[in-house]
Sequence to fold (312 residues):
Amino acid sequence: MRRAKISIIGAGAVGATCAHWAAAKALGDIVLVDIPEKLGPTRGKALDLAQSAPIERFDVHVVGTDDYEQTAGSDVVIITAGLPRKPGMSRDDLVRTNAQIVADVSRRVASTSPDGILVVVSNPLDAMVYAAWKVSGFPPDRVVGQAGCLDVARYATLIAAEVGCSVEDIRALLMGGHGDDMVPLKRYTTVAGIPVTQLIRPDRLDQIIQQTRMGGGQIVQLMGTSASYAPAAGTIQMVEAILRDKKRILPCAAYCQGEYGVGGYFVGVPCLLGAKGVERIIEVELDPDERKLFETSVQHVKELCELVDRML
Fold:
C-alpha cells in the first residue's frame, strides 16, 4: 500500500517539530522544504530525524530540500513559512510580508500537488489561510488553518492543573481567532463529562481563559521566540485526522459559507476533519455573550482579509 506523503513548507522550529510528530506517528513520508539559503540546515534536520527511526521504530522516508518538485503528489501540505512579528513592525507590515510568502508557497504547491490538502499555520493565521485559498485556487474544503487545536490544548492544560486531574479527561471547545480574539465556550467544556463550571469557580475560570489568551505571549517572554511543540502537535492532530480519515471534530479555521452567519471568510469553528479535508462545519448554539465575542472576532478577520485582498 502506498504511504501518504506530507510536505512541510518552512523548516524552522514549528515546521521541524511538525516533521518530528508526523514521523513519530508514522503518518507518511515527509518532505521538509525551505529556501535555498537554508538548504544545509533543512537537509541536516531531515537527516537527523531519519536517523532516529531505528530507535523510535517508524518506517517513513524523510528528506530535506529547497526543490518543490520533490513535494509533487503530496496528500497534505503544511505551510509554516513566514516571519514572526518584529519590534516596530505594524500589523499591516506583517500581513504584507507573510501574505507574499504564503502566496508564493501556495502557487508552487498548487502546481505540484493539485489534489492535496493545505494546512496553514503561518501568522496572522486567519488572513494567511485566506491568502493560501485565494492563490491556490483549491476548493475551500481542502484549505484549513490551525490555531484552535493549539488554544484548546493550552486551555485544557490549565484546567487539568486547576482541577488536579489528567489532561485526557478534559474536553473543551473554542471558537474565533487566535489569542485575544479567542471565544471560549465554557458551556461546552467538561472534565470527564462534568461541566467545568461545577468544578472551577467563575472568577478562577475567567482567569484561566485570560491565561489561555496570553499563552503564546508568555512563551515569547520566557524564551524570546514563539512556541513550537504545542503548535506543531496541534497541526499534526489535524493531519492525522485527515490522513487516517478519523472524522475528528476539532476547532479549525474553516471557510464559512453561511454557517454562524459568516460568508466568505475562514474563521475558527468546530470542524469534522476527514479524508476530504473539512467535511462539515458543526454549528453549536451560542448565547448572546458568546455571539457578541464571536462577531467581534469575525470583524477582525474581515479587516485582515481586506488587507490581503489589496496586496494580492
Q: What stands out?
A: The first strand starts at residue 5 and ends at 9. The first helix runs from residue 13 to 24.
